Amino acid sequence: ALAEERKKFLDSGLDDCILKPIRLQTLYDALGLKFEADTHLPEADAKPTPALIDESILKELSQVLLPERTAQTIRRVCEEIEAEVPAIAKQSDNAEQIGKRAHKLAGSAAIVGAEALAQLLRTIETAEKAGEYKKIHAALVELPDVASLTTTALIQRMPLVP
Fold first, then answer.
1. Does the CA dihedral 145-151-156-157 come out positive or negative?
2. Which partner from 4, 11, 21, 65 sits 20 to 30 angstroms from 42, CA to CA?
3. What's the CA gap between 116 and 104, in Å, rounded?
4. For 35, which DSSP code?
């Protein structure tokens, strides 16, 4: 859901609304519980810009899943990024398809804390819904570089599994 959709839910009378991807911290806060993260992720040698990867999301993922499953999830998302970014670029004449693909990939990126990529994809999705084609084009120009940096950063952070 987009921020505008969340506002619509709250305006219709809901006390709160938790949007996907659901974070444990957000869920615990909504329930009034204390959340303490523990992780089995290795520390990155070279930390990327804070906006590229949200370390707290990766730590939470690592706490919820076993190291093997965390690594599989990160690997799957990296593979999806590598497949979908060129596919999105090939849809340059079909804004609706770009928006749909961007929405799907944004969700996957957000699950592993790939915040810069997820935000760029949400920008594409929002621009498609608003018919802002110049904004879509500008974001598509950035997309391959952000995707490449993201997959590199995610692979650096994969848990070491035996």
1. positive
2. 21
3. 15
4. -
Question: Would you write out the chain's pLDDT as a tens digit for each of its 162 residues?
Answer: 567 777 888 888 887 777 777 777 777 777 777 766 555 555 555 544 446 999 888 888 888 888 889 999 999 999 999 999 999 988 878 999 999 999 999 999 999 999 999 999 999 999 999 999 999 999 999 999 999 999 999 999 887 755
In which residue are the tokens 């004449």 written?
A: 93
- In whole angstroms, give the CA distance from residue 12 to residue 23: 24
Q: Rounded to an integer, what distance in angstroms lies between the CA atom of residue 149 and that of residue 53?
A: 10
Q: Output the CA–CA distances (angstroms, integers) from residue 148 to 1, 76, 114, in the order listed.
A: 26, 15, 11
Which residue type occupies 21? P
Burial of 93: CB neighbours in 10 Å, binned 0-12, 13-18, 19+:
exposed
